[in-house]
Design goal:
Layout lengths: L2 H11 L5 E7 L2 E6 L4 H10 L7 E9 L7 E9 L4 E9 L4 E3 L8 H12 L2 E3 L28 E6 L4 E6 L16
Parallel strand pairs: 2-5, 6-7
Antiparallel strand pairs: 1-2, 3-4, 4-5, 8-9
Length: about 180
């Protein structure tokens, strides 16, 4: 079964299954689904005999702070039997949770923890959702576009107290709107 046949199968699937959009981008198949239906769509793509996307190779997150649904989650699936990849995209907001596919794909556990740690997207029914890349007391989510580049607190060694201390960051200069034609 080649990729054209799978594309036709997925197009016919969209008549009975609520897929938002189907795209073919640079010979890669992309399916956009609603976040409430993500888990059910992933179950279908994993266990249906026509697809068999048995491997989850990656989950990534993208932040669009001006959009209504701020975060885009991209699940990349691989069918070893048919030698084809599928990219499943969904959009969510920081106040909504997305169903975890940790029980469906075991590799999803790490990726979902990473997205939780870096973006703050909550995954419902995750078996062990925790921060894995930042410290336990870290505030905020570093890959969000509105996260300050210098952070919220500064850690430094205080010579008089002979220990590491945390201080709130105070920026001594206001941000400027840079104009490339102006020398100042």
């Amino acid at each position: 079964m080649n990729s054209q046949l799978i594309v036709k199968n997925i197009q016919s699937l969209s008549k009975i299954c609520p897929l938002e959009k189907i795209q073919l981008y640079r010979q890669e198949l992309v399916v956009v689904v609603k976040s409430q239906l993500l888990y059910d769509i992933l179950v279908l793509f994993k266990y249906h005999i026509s697809y068999q996307f048995t491997l989850l190779t990656c989950i990534t997150g993208v932040d669009y702070p001006n959009n209504r649904y701020r975060f885009k989650l991209v699940y990349e699936l691989l069918s070893i039997r048919y030698n084809i990849r599928l990219r499943v995209k969904t959009f969510t907001h920081e106040l909504f949770g997305v169903d975890s596919c940790n029980q469906l794909y075991f590799t999803a556990g790490w990726y979902e923890c990473e997205i939780w740690d870096m973006y703050g997207v909550f995954f419902k029914n995750h078996s062990n959702l925790k921060r894995i890349l930042t410290d336990y007391g870290f505030e905020g989510y570093p890959l969000r576009k509105d996260f300050p580049l210098s952070g919220f607190v500064e850690m430094k060694y205080n010579e008089t107290e002979k220990r590491v201390i945390n201080e709130s960051i105070e920026l001594c200069q206001e941000y400027r709107a840079f104009k490339f034609l102006s020398p100042w």
